[in-house]
Amino acid sequence: MASVPREFSEIVRTRYATKSFDGKRIDEATMQKLLELIRLAPSSVNLQPWRIKVISDQATKEALSPHSWNQKQITTCSHLLVFCADTKLEERMAAMVMRMKASEVSAENIEGFSRMVGGMLTRMDGPQRLIWAQKQCYIAMSHALLGAKSLGLDSCPMEGFVPSEYSRVLKLPAHLVPTLVVPVGYPNDKPWPKVRFEKKDVFF
Prior knowledge:
Blueprint: H1 8-14, H2 28-39, E1 50-55, H3 58-64, H4 72-76, E2 79-86, H5 89-102, H6 107-122, H7 126-150, E3 154-155, H8 163-170, E4 176-185
Antiparallel strand pairs: 1-2, 2-4, 3-4
Helix pairs in contact: 2-7, 5-6
């Protein structure tokens, strides 16, 4: 097993899109640590409009494979994380207000939150809500990728799948839209050299 990177800079440098895993099972304690790191991901107005399906049984991974263009990551990983955008945003807001009250956030701040988020939601139609929620999923995914590496795991961000078929196989309700897939496990491949644009081509 590879050594666990300790410094954030090392995590960023050594993380890569793993194309094949060795099938070894991630122990439950480590998996729970990863899920906690994902849970702490930020989001716009802290609405966290995502639900993440955690799949570990091989039968379900095999069923999803044809709808992922038979990419090896799906069936060789230990756990498959399916990031779904949650479009029931008013319900998400109401649940967050309850959590804020339980956390003894001031009534003034809760009122301000409700007014701001409620106004934002009234200005978005259905397609806009979905796009907004899907954008937030990418933030949570970044925690999954970097969090996995910090725990000695590897992963792969994937958009190469058919969302409607994932919904069917997983029997998801209509308001949960599969947006991203992140297989996690131990690698059975080697990373390519990390190739990125130079700073001058990125920052201006």
